[in-house]
Amino acid sequence: MEGWDRNTKSALTQIPLLSTRAGPRDGAAWTQRLKEEYRALIAYTSMNKAGDNDWFRIAAANPEGTRWEGTCWYVHNLRRYEFALQFDIPVTYPATAPEIELPQLDGKTHKMYRGGKICLTVHFKPLWAKNCPRFGIAHALCLGLAPWLAAEVPILVDSGMVKHKDDEASSTES
Amino acid sequence: MEEELKSLLQDVESLQRSQTKSPDSIDEMQQKVVRIMNLAKTGASRRSKVKDMSAEVVDSNPYSRLMALQRMGIVENYERIREFSVAIVGIGGVGSVAAEMLTRCGIGRLLLYDYDTVELANMNRLFFRPDQVGMTKTDAAVQTLSDINPDVVLESYSLNITTVKGFEIFTESLKFQGSQKSGRSTGVDLVLSCVDNYEARMVVNQACNELGQTWMESGVSEDAVSGHIQLLVPGETACFACAPPLVVASGVDERTLKREGVCAASLPTTMGVVAGLLVQNALKYLLKFGQVSPYLGYNSLKDYFPTMEMRPNPQCSNLACVERQNEYIQTKPARDAAAKVKVEAEASAATEGPLHLENDWNISVVDDTEMETSNASSASGALPEGLTHELPSADKYPESLVVGEASPVVDDLEDLQRQLDALNAL
Ligand SMILES: [Zn+2]
Q: What is the pLDDT of residue B319?
């Protein structure tokens, strides 16, 4: 667990691990995996709320559970910045992690691949590979998206690339 | 443009007629317009399709220098290239250049896959032009490639192969045989993976393992100074999931690599070199000349080219890979018999004809027998110098332990969904 901050580490250890190695093309085994995903997400969300550290909403956007959509937010200088969040479960899941996208930030930062996919740290993929198939969506959010927001949102706000929605509204009114 | 020029010419001509004696300047104008019209016409004209590849050395023959390979005895039958179908996944810095090379070589059919559009940020690489910004990469590629060589059948697939839907279209398009007769089990002879990320490579690996499709992998490192190509024959060689992916160590200490504010760098040179190595290997494989490399790395900082070979891992986590491995083992007796016949035929031919000393040139940077790892899952210590694993292997963990963790469990998917929805609504 080299390269991770203390909060990420302690959150990670509390998210339930998954056990079914199944992807979206695996029929009944995928349904089993989905149940495990939900259990982990429920536990992680409850934990965040209890710790007053609620920072995302996510739900399956199709009955098969292969597409997920929601929002995530980050508080910087006492103001909350919120972004739409989406990803598909890849056919090779869980061998490969979902590629998390923040479409509103596409083209606004170099720490992003085409299509608004966030650029993960060098530590993410090795840890995911080591723990396959025990890590799921909740782990990807905790290890991938949370550190990305913490690192990039302050830079995006301070450089003016991202404006708070209140400021945007007033500037369009005037 | 042609329309506008025509009307301009008409204007000039009516001006000419309206004057009893037209001034020289108007005559000059008329000639200028006619010249521009001719220029525009030749610019827009494409060469017509060629029915047969000719070896005739004339300026108008686009294939004369390629057919010369056959005359020189490098390739036995170059014309066969027109029978081959190649799929290229990822039309970026490597894939687009590979596509252009195969197009200029006169490949029969190219299937192009990418989900992205051309951006100005791509202009440090080869192939795409600024006027193509905003087009899908596959459509822009078809536009340029069909101009270069109208003989090539081009298919454009703008989709993301990692999604369930995209994967379905991807595998169906690879399977589609069309009307042409061939000895292939799929509709293509070779798949070239030119994608820029691990996730997409794993998807190409999945498709090719399921279809038993031979493919070649290519990659350029995120620091843009090294790359590699790899041949993957399902069941016969290691698949992409048999062992953690390899990278050519650039020699730059990872800890000194500054990653703040950037995801990845790219150089047209490294990408061009890797595209060249990839297509060269593809041509050797398709046209059966030279030695096809199982793995070739490129470290541009040291100009070092490590090679190696990897056997499949019987414990591979990819089920289709294990199935192909079993099939390969079952067909071993037949393969051995065929190989024996071939060796005997060659031996008898050798006693008759003169020896080709050139065949003894077996230059390799590293000794293949040393490099060959008996099992891809073996420790990374067995890797040749300059190669490392990009990712660790998955930890082994006792299954029972995990099962034991889940104690009072809700086992209904809809119940679980409702629980999460309720939490989300708070
Ligand atoms: Zn394998």
A: 94
State how far the Cα of A118 lies from the Cα of A98, in Å rounded to an integer: 11
pLDDT at residue B362, rounded to an integer: 37
- B242 has catalytic annotation: no
Please list every residue in chain A whose beta carbon sits closer than 8 Å to the beta carbon of residue B394.
129-133
Q: Is A64 helix (H, G, I), strand (E, B) or coil?
A: coil
Query: What is the residue-averaged pLDDT of chain B?
Result: 84
- Which domains are present in chain A? 6-173 (3.10.110.10)
Determine contact, residues A169/A51, Cβ cutoff 8 Å: no
- Judged by CB atoms closer than 8 Å, whether chains meet at B394 and A91 is answered as no
Kindly report whether the peptide bond that precedes residue A94 is cis, defined as omega within 30 degrees of 0: yes
pTM, to two decimals? 0.81
Please work out, in degrees rounded to the nearest 5, the angle formed at the alpha carbon of residue B10 by the alpha carbons of B8 and B14. Answer: 120
E strands in chain A: 56-60, 67-76, 79-88, 112-113, 117-118
Taking only the tens place, the pLDDT of each residue in A55-90 is 999 999 999 999 999 999 999 999 999 999 999 999
ipTM attached to this prediction: 0.85
Tell me if B138 sits within 8 A of B113, measured CB to CB. yes
Suggest the residue from A35, A66, A101 to mutate for an interface test with chain B (most B CBs closer than 10 A): A35
- Write the pLDDT tens digit of every residue in B134-171: 999 999 999 999 999 999 999 999 999 999 999 999 99
C-alpha dihedral (A15, A19, A22, A28), degrees to nearest 10: -110
Q: Which residues from chain A sit within 8 angstroms of residue B392, using beta carbons?
A: 126, 129-130
* Residue of chain B nearest A24, judged by CA positions: B164
- Report CA-CA distances (Å) from A70 to A34, A67, A89, A161: 17, 11, 14, 22
Question: What would the two tokens of residue B267 be?
Answer: 């150089």
CB contact under 8 A, A19 and B403: yes
Q: In angstroms, rounded to a whole number, what is the distance separating the alpha carbons of residues B302 and B60? A: 42
pLDDT > 70? residue B388 = yes
